């Protein structure tokens, strides 16, 4: 497994590099500035304000500032909002940023006081914009939460911004627990966010700027501008009727706090909050460019696999979407079918990217119902399983009732795939032993954990049991991290400085 793990870790690293924000942003901003100069050939370009928001904010800001320096343009102000400070040797510290740029750290994935502070920093940076300026808005994954703050209307309705921020946090938590896809969550959240649904572009336009260059690294399936970061510089394409239908399709009315329900137009005679529409003059100033996306990461993985001598590289055209647990089992089954058709001595890799979901509400309900008796039954079912790995045996122990749920969608997918491979191996299907996979986020953090994801094979569940875990129970109750950690299967990379959703590489060797 050691050589296989190194190869799969290298493929993940290639995916991250394929969506590296610095170079992508530098080139895109350079092209935009050339177009701006051509459009205004009779006058020099004015000073520029930079708003870099999201997990890739540091590297995107540095890339943009490098392009500005090449064009001898001055950075007059702006702000960088991210979820981490840059550290030596990682993306985000390629070149020093101008001191005029404010710095802020927001909360992620559930917005809190730090996100409100970050939004206030954005407001202050907007007030510093002088008429006639150029503005760059650099968006990447995590923007919605990191800059989340209530609209003025919501703050007035509940009393003040701090109380309104608590409602924003509760809304985010409810949507996360409900298993909504990111585009559905952002469709709902942007209605009540200070800078969502085009409100950032509207606020900047009021300062009398001449253009708003918007550059986005997509962390959503479909790369829809109104979904990335909840569309700070894009009009909301959903009308009120479709918006309310979405809320009802997920039965959200009874799950929302009354104040939020009223704010979203679900109570009494209330109506959904107004948002800037496509005919708003602000959007005429916006030039939108998609800088990098998940497809770039998957393509980089494919190139790296070929460079490693893999015989056959298969890339899925359809994005990974839907339930992460089911996807893990399906990928394992597909890999087994592929392995049966391969000539001896050959290798194949299956590549895919996207963003599955985990229905936390359903998982929480299972965890509540899941008692020691169920854990004991699952452990008992493996008393007669042949030893698949050579490791000291620790008696299986049930998960403690107060043990926290811990894991992410890629860890769920990986553990599900490992269990499916183990089951096939136990049935005597030797092809299962030829398969290993990496499932990880490109941002370096899968869910609220210290890992980007995991690298697994058919031996991982047995390794977890030998360390005292019950992987079936951990998967079922939202504790996938514990089994994967016990099996030494987690992939820990630290923050990558980018975010283009998740990637999976399934390696098959005969």
Can you give a write-up of this model?
There is one protein chain. By secondary structure, the chain is of the alpha/beta class. It folds into 2 domains: 47-292, 3-Layer(aba) Sandwich (Rossmann fold), CATH 3.40.50.10180; 295-509, MOFRL domain (glycerate kinase, domain 1). It contains 19 helices and 12 strands. It has helices at residues 2-18, 21-39, 57-70, 113-127, 143-146, 152-158, 161-177, 182-189, 199-205, 240-249, 258-263, 294-307, 324-340, 360-369, 372-380, 409-426, 460-466, 471-476, 480-486; strands at 48-53, 75-82, 102-105, 134-139, 211-217, 286-292, 312-315, 347-354, 435-441, 453-457, 490-491, 502-509. Strands 3-2-1-4-5-6 form a 6-stranded parallel sheet, with helices on both faces. Helix 1 (2-18) crosses helix 12, helix 13 (324-340) packs across helix 16 and helix 17 (460-466) packs across helix 19. The radius of gyration is 24 Å and the shape is globular. The two termini are 14 Å apart. The model is unreliable at 88-93 and 372-400 (pLDDT under 50).
Provide the residue-averaged pLDDT: 88
The CATH class label of the largest domain is Alpha Beta
The CATH architecture name of the largest domain reads 3-Layer(aba) Sandwich
**CATH overall fold name of the largest domain:** Rossmann fold
Radius of gyration, in angstroms, nearest whole number: 24 Å
Instruction: List unreliable stretches of 5+ residues.
Output: 88-93, 372-400
Q: What quaternary form is this?
A: single chain
Query: Got a strand count?
Result: 12
- What is the strand content? 5-15%
Principal-axes shape call: globular
How many strands, what sense, and barrel or not for the largest sheet? 6 strands, parallel
SS field, number of helical segments: 19
Q: Roughly how much helix do the residues carry, as a percent range?
A: 40-55%
How many structural units, i.e. domains? 2
How are the strands of the biggest sheet laid out side by side?
3-2-1-4-5-6
- First-last Cα distance: 14 Å
Name of the CATH superfamily of the largest domain: Glycerate kinase, MOFRL-like N-terminal domain
| SS-based class | alpha/beta
